[in-house]
Write a structure and sequence with these properties.
It is built from ten helices and six strands. By secondary structure, it is an alpha+beta fold. The chain has a single domain (2-66, 105-278, 315-424), classed as Up-down Bundle (Outer membrane efflux proteins (OEP)). The strands form two sheets. Strands 2-3-5-6 form a four-stranded antiparallel beta sheet, with no helix packed on it. The protein has a two-stranded parallel ribbon with strand order 1-4. The longest helix is centred in the N-terminal third of the chain and has 67 residues, at 107-173. The radius of gyration is 38 Å and the shape is elongated. The chain starts with a helix and ends in a 6-residue tail after the last helix.
Length: 430
């Protein structure tokens, strides 16, 4: 009865049924839809687009309409100078003014270029954060898969030990086995059940992390991750030169760094534009009337003109701002180079890790087959009285360890492939 209850306990520790599983692609799509970091990054990108539209607005003329009404009380002195003035009067004014900046030394164009480059950098940051999110979701997903598989492996180990326990009890009753033999399998069964409890706790922890990455509340019911497919074929590892050529044209970190360099260069041009004169056209139509606001065509006058302004000396402020912008450009260039070197290193490491993961998976799968065959042979020989209890324990331990390592190697290869795509900048959903 105790054995049956413990078996039921192990079954209860298992995650939800297989038909209620969550695929990695479904998890990715949920994260991109619901993760708050995605929404925050999208908002920053929209802000950058708005600043670009703001900079583009400087090319258009500005139109302003004004109007005011006032009651003026004249001073005694003013009335002495003009006896026709009354004590007070009501004045009404209306005006429509237009200004158009024709040339500002190229600063306007440079501001627009800087804003457009900043928008490109924000877009690249959006893609970069998206890829980081997908990679983190993949890591949490494979961690949950591994924990779930470890629950299964520990449960299978407990069932194996329980079968041996039942057999050894019958043999003990017949006088063909000792109490020490029975205690051996009892202890190992309990150890396997304890491993299942630990694996279930690890599974719950991984699922909690995955739920947070998906942007869901902690109490949101989330299906278990899809079972591991041990027969999924491995992709071939790319050559570094080909992978770098691909990464060089699409890796968001590099695109962001290049956009930041362009924005910094444009900011230098903005400051240099302050050394040049500006030319603007202006015009207005205005009217002033006393006593009442009933304006007529006779009340309006107009002004049209061109204005040129040239700031010849400002105490060295322009030069200081230009130098500051130049140093900012140098900083952006050095930062871009550092990001490029880091990207090269990460790509080389990702290729190495994936290649090693593929080979490790091959070795662990072969080891698993050998340990399974060995365990089955030793078990049969033990039942026939041809092998020792110590040898059976060793064979079962080797098999359980090999199975756990095989699953881990399979998921390590899966995560290494995700990391490789991230390093190349191609970790995107179709």
């Amino acid at each position: 009865m105790k054995t049956i209850l413990l078996s039921l306990l192990l079954i209860a520790l298992l995650p939800v049924h297989a038909e209620e599983t969550l695929t990695l692609e479904e998890a990715w799509r949920t994260a991109l839809r619901d993760n708050p970091n995605e929404a925050a990054t999208r908002a920053r990108f929209e802000q950058a687009l708005a600043r670009a539209r703001l900079a583009r607005g400087a090319y258009h003329p500005q139109l302003e309409a004004t109007g005011n009404a006032a009651r003026v009380s004249f001073s005694d002195r003013a009335q002495e100078l003009n006896p026709l003035l009354e004590d007070s009067a009501e004045q009404f004014e209306a005006a429509l003014r237009a200004t158009w900046l024709i040339w500002d030394g190229g600063a306007r164009r440079s501001r627009l270029n800087a804003a457009l480059s900043a928008a490109d950098a924000a877009e690249a940051s959006l893609e970069e954060i998206r890829m980081d999110l997908l990679a983190n979701v993949g890591r949490a997903f494979t961690s949950a898969q591994l924990a779930r598989e470890n629950v299964r492996i520990s449960t299978a180990d407990a069932e194996f030990q329980n079968r041996q326990l039942q057999d050894i009890r019958r043999r003990e009753a017949a006088g063909a086995a000792s109490r020490a033999d029975r205690l051996n399998f009892d202890i190992r069964r309990l150890a396997a059940e304890n491993s299942a409890v630990t694996a279930k706790a690890n599974y719950d922890t991984a699922m909690a992390a995955l739920t947070a990455l998906l942007g869901l509340d902690a109490d949101h019911p989330l299906p278990a991750p899809a079972p591991v497919d041990p027969d999924a074929p491995a992709h071939g590892a790319p050559a570094y030169a080909d992978a770098w050529l691909e990464a060089r044209t699409q890796l968001p970190a590099l695109m962001r760094a290049e956009s930041q360099v362009r924005a910094a260069r444009a900011n230098v041009d903005v400051e240099r534009g302050a050394y040049r004169p500006t030319l603007a056209a202006f015009g207005d139509v205005s009217a002033t009337r006393t006593e009442d606001p009933a304006f007529s065509g006779e009340d309006f006058g107009n002004t049209v003109g061109l204005q040129i302004a040239w700031d010849l000396w400002d105490g060295g402020q322009r030069r200081a701002r230009t130098r500051e912008a130049q140093w900012a450009l140098d900083e952006a260039g050095a930062g871009a180079r550092a990001i490029e070197l880091q990207a090269q290193s990460q790509l080389a490491n990702a290729i190495t890790a994936y290649t090693a993961a593929v080979r490790s998976e091959e070795i662990t799968r072969e080891t698993l087959e050998l340990t399974r065959e060995n365990r089955d042979l030793v078990e049969a020989a033990f039942r026939a009285g041809q092998e020792s209890l110590l040898r059976l324990n060793e064979a079962q331990r080797d098999y359980t360890t090999a199975e756990s390592r095989a699953v881990q190697a399979r998921l390590t290869r899966e995560q290494a492939w995700i990391d490789l795509q991230r390093a190349k900048g191609s970790l995107i959903l179709p």
